[in-house]
Amino acid sequence: MANRQKFQVEVAYARPDVQVIIPLEVEAGTTLAEAIHVSGILEQFPEIDLAKNKVGIFGKLAKPETVLREKDRVEIYRPLIADPKESRRKRAAKKEKSVQAPAGRGAES
After folding, report:
1. Into how many domains does the chain fold?
2. In Å, how far are 29, 46, 71 from 5, measured between CA atoms?
3. Is the residue at 106 inside a domain?
4. Strand ranges inside 15-71, DSSP E
5. What is the percent of the chain with per-residue pLDDT over 70, rounded to a whole number?
6. Coil, strand or helix: which one is 87?
């Protein structure tokens, strides 16, 4: 195969202070992990650890060995700083507490 098909993809990573999207041209058969390495993003953001950071395509988790398709956006996700279930419980409890009516008044006849 002397002439392999090439297509465009993007590799994206975001922190609270900076967001980066790196456009790449890759060959057919390129995996998600290969695109990340070729993009140079690991050198730009040394805090990325592919053994810990989850990755995906367009907001859906994907495995590093996933073969990319044309115009895919590879995303590298930061670790969560709070448990989403616990955060939701706290918000629900706070909302419930603020909605409850004050006690003490009875109905008048």
Report:
1. 1
2. 9, 31, 14
3. no
4. 19-27, 55-57, 60-61
5. 84
6. helix
